[in-house]
Design goal:
It contains 18 helices and no strands. With about 500 residues, the protein is an all-alpha fold.
Length: about 500
Amino acid sequence: MLFNSFDFLIFFPIVCILYYVINYRFRYLFLLAASYYFYMCWNPKYALLMLASTVITYLSGIFIHYADGLPDEGRRKMLKKCFLVLSFSLNLGILFFFKYFNFAVDSLNRVLSGIQLKTVNAGFDVILPVGISFYTFQALSYTVDVYRGDIYREKNFFKYALFVSFFPQLVAGPIERSKNLLRQISVRHSFDVKRVQYGLTLMLFGLFQKMVISDNAALIVNQVYDNHSKYGSVELIFATVLFAFQIYCDFGGYTNIAIGAAKVMGFELMENFNTPYLADSVTDFWRRWHISLTSWFRDYLYIPLGGNRKGRIRKYINIMAVFLTSGLWHGASWHYVVWGGINGIYQIAEDLLKPVYNRLCRLFDVDKRTFSHRFAKAVIAFVLVDISWIFFRADGVGQALAIIKGICTRWDFTVLLNNGLLTLGMDRQQSVILVVSLFVLLFTDICRYLKVDLIGQLCRQEIWFQYGVYLLFIFAILIFGSYGPGFDASQFIYFQF
């Protein structure tokens, strides 16, 4: 069930009404049933995989808790590690089979064919279950938190199952932590008009991001990238810049809908995006982009590997390990791994060049606090990130390199004189709407960067002004949103991960 579908438009209000009508002691059971129904709308049998991951991590928490009470310290540590490793092995084994099995077989066959050996026939195709990477990482974080003693193991299996399957953030995050979401499940949430209004407004803006900006930008991006050999440098650069906003509004739109939907029911999900394209470095970008995943890798991979505590060389190795793993997490293909590797190299380069940068600033008496300096750094960071997005969007490493080659070699500025950029894959009216929508996005991000809560400000205005803004966004979605024959295929990009 997609957030931008009529099914969800019916499903969500019914769930919210029943949620507040039902006795609070049974609400978590109702939400659990609703969450599994939500997931099973894609493929009912894959709910068994989510249930398996839930059972494994729930039992691991119980066993780790049991081992933690043993008097023998050596046996206690050994058993806790065994249960932790077993939980990770089983969950990552399931994830590998359903997400990476075909990728592993294809990669092996390329090597075998390269040395002229017989290739392997897998014998069957494995279909990727929606959201498996997200709920697997969320469940594993619970196991680690119990192992570390950060939380007490959850006794109620059904409350824990709701933590893993909570439908607003189930298929594309944010990847929640047990210290946040699991504790909220036992809290009695009362109906609050202001909170509901805030959540619905956030959901509305998320739909605007997805259906008006992202889906319309996709028309140009798909047109150029699917026929990249026919276009020159200017069109390729334009499509690449647009993809940066397409994926931001697609994923950021989903996150806003998820956070807003949870807020309507009284739950507070963690922030996942914080004006990433206003970052002044690639390192800063990754503090602002997909925060739940970045912080997950920091807490459960980077720090356990040693972080920056074991010298500079080890630190850089750990950074590359995190970003290569992050690339592979995003997709079972080498171009995602390359994308992750590029961002890892960016971070290492920034760390290495930081003393040089500081020395040059002192030498030329540069004031780092000026708008011009910060603006220049933000532009450089955006360009670097956007170059890496080419590998993320392309169908493979070969296509990404071909697009980069086209950008560097096929310069033709005549397209700037005939307004051809604004009619790539769409008509002039659509292009005008897209430009206006991007300015709306930029305005909201600048306000957020300046710590201005636009939704909070809107909710405090007179009712005629509030509903005037709501109707404006609703009409924009209904009139300029991406509908028609291709609407059903307009899934959120991160659903494939």
